[in-house]
Amino acid sequence: MYRPKSTLEQWRILQAVIDCGGYAQAASALNKSQSSLNHAVSKLQAMLDVQLLEVVGRKAVLTDAGEVLLRRSRDLTQTVASLEQLAVNINQDWEPEITLAVDLAFPRDILYKALVPFLPNSRASRLRIIDTVLTGTSDAIVDKTADLVISLNVPKGFLGEPLTNIAFVLVCSPKHELASTPHAISPDTLSQHLQLVIADTSPTPEETQGWLKSENRWTLSQFDSAIDLLLQNIGFCWLPVHKVEDLLTTKRLQRLTIEGSEFKQSSSFLVVTQPESKGPGVRLLEKLILQQRQIDLPCYENL
């Protein structure tokens, strides 16, 4: 039988050195001495006969081989963490805490209708709800930092149940210069004005979604902050229809039309990040959220 040369602890230490930005920071995060971390990584390299790190200036950086092995080691440690969590779920009646990540654009009234019946049946399990945006929502799925994620995008390798469609419209104040344009606005004209954008919650955002052509941008963390600025005749912004419907009806905000674009629409999905080890609390919350979905599903009964 094969006996591993390395240990999970050694791989976790290597991960910490990279994630924390060095041995000193990793030692503080792990509450270990810096010398013990140096020894663990050196021993790991010696046993594998592969150089994982090299010192550049005062910082230890990964070699090409180190990058490959570190990436695979994350899969290994995540699998062990999932296995241990599964054992906990099997050994207890209910999860002590459930984390739900929700994309900021998702209509909260749908979510709240699921949370009302969840409360009396949650057996005092703590529920942590995290607001996420764009890449930050995908990170919560890929990194499995949440048990359930409501996302506008399902990353490769995961499955999601459709919940509802979310329409986005371009809006500004009726007093804004753009509001007086009698025809569809060209993207070039739009790019000359201040755009309000909602910040991506990922530490490494990927600006691959949305119209971001305007160089003059203010970045905000919430849709409500953007709406407040719009009402002060500051900028334009893409916003979910459900957030501004009343303001459009009362003409406190005005919808704009861009050449070739009336509106944007995205689908939202519920993703269980670790379906093989979900506990009873996650299963219940998943069921209650899916009961509130507002989308017509195809019927395959007669196929």
Automatic annotation (TrEMBL):
Full protein name: LysR family transcriptional regulator
Keywords carried by this UniProt record: DNA-binding, Transcription, Transcription regulation
Pfam family, one: LysR_substrate
InterPro entries: LysR_HTH_N, LysR_subst-bd, WH-like_DNA-bd_sf, WH_DNA-bd_sf
Keyword DNA-binding: yes
Annotated HTH lysR-type domain residues: 7-63
Similarity field: Belongs to the LysR transcriptional regulatory family.
Gene3D superfamilies: 3.40.190.290, Winged helix-like DNA-binding domain superfamily/Winged helix DNA-binding domain
Native source species: Agaribacter marinus
GO MF annotation: an example: DNA-binding transcription factor activity
